[in-house]
Amino acid sequence: MTATGQRASAEVVLATRAGTGRGRITDVPGEQPSAKPFVPAGADLDDLREAAASCRGCHLYEGTTQTVFSSGSPTARVVLVGEQPGDQEDRQGAPFVGPAGRMLDRALEEAGIERGDAYVTNAVKHFKFTRSGPGKRRIHQTPTAVELAACKPWLVAELRIIDPEVVVCLGATAGKALFGPGFRVTKQRGVLLPRPPLDDQEAARQNAFVVATIHPSAVLRADDPDAMYAGLVSDLRVAAAALAA
Ligand code: URA
Ligand code: SF4
Questions:
Q1: 185-233 pLDDT, tens per residue?
Q2: Is the minimum distance from the CB of 95 to ligand 1 under 6 angstroms?
Q3: Hey, which CATH number is domain 68-244, 3.30.70.670, 2.40.160.30, 3.20.20.70, 3.40.470.10?
Q4: What is the mean pLDDT of residues 44-63?
Q5: DSSP of 147-190, one letter per residue?
Q6: Which pLDDT score, from 0 to 100, does residue 207 have?
Q7: Nearest ligand, CA of residue 93?
């Protein structure tokens, strides 16, 4: 069988397994986990959200409450990309509704970006965690490059539909999702970067930009939260200025 034939049949197997709610893509030898077989062609955002609810593109759905897809306007000129849902987001089913979300709201307001004018999503749509401590609390774990790549088809589909003028990457993980594993938020934050091609079928988009900044939760953990917060706001102002231009 050709390589293409093998891939197609693997995807059929995976889609069938997903339909039964059992198994996972990582069970298939030689296959990279991917959301791709679950992303419907020609979908609008509501179709994507509905399909993502039963995504089994990688193992991260296991033990979570639900897929956390996105919130906000489909006609937004700015898309904010976080890392992945946290504990609160997993329970409530919406991005940035916990402590990091409150920090983000404050910084957006100060930078002059209305959260209501933005579309808010995450690089990875399921909460990755380990359980530890006496109460076995769910502790956030950073997604791997393989998990980021697995979930990227959802983000690509969202960005294709919305086609925003500015994407704000909130933290290193979101930056890596768009620019690849070599992305360093410390080096590339707070400037307008040309938006890279979303996948290997696309040439770089003209007049679309990315601004990277720290993750709002980094402010919560910082030794000097005031300085971290000021940096976050200052980076967000770069995005706000691009939108006003
Ligand atoms: N952190 C994120 O990156 N995204 C959320 O939705 C919540 C916390
Ligand atoms: Fe699908 Fe992404 Fe969830 Fe993995 S993390 S199961 S690819 S939605």
A1: 999 999 999 999 998 877 767 789 999 999 999 999 999 999 999 999 9
A2: yes
A3: 3.40.470.10
A4: 98
A5: HHHHHHHHHHHHHHHH--SEEEEESHHHHHHHH-TT--HHHHBT
A6: 86
A7: 1
> What's the rounded mean pLDDT across residues 116-139?
94
Give 217's contacts (C-beta < 8 A, 6+ positions apart): 86, 99, 100, 103, 171
Q: Which of 60, 79, 83, 169 to mutate to test the pocket of ligand 1 (most atoms within 8 A of CB)?
A: 83
Model pTM score: 0.88
Domain limits, the chain: 68-244
Distance, CA 214 to ligand 1 centroid (Å)? 12
154 Cβ neighbours under 8 A, 6+ residues apart: 35, 39, 48, 52, 55, 69, 125
Atom number, ligand 2, closest to the C-alpha of residue 55 = 1
Q: How far lies 213's CA from each of 76, 82, 138, 145, 241, in Å? A: 19, 10, 26, 19, 15
Q: What is d(CA 117, CA 95) in angstroms, rounded to the nearest whole number?
A: 15
Q: Which of 59, 124, 141, 156 to mutate to test the pocket of ligand 2 (most atoms within 8 A of CB)?
A: 124
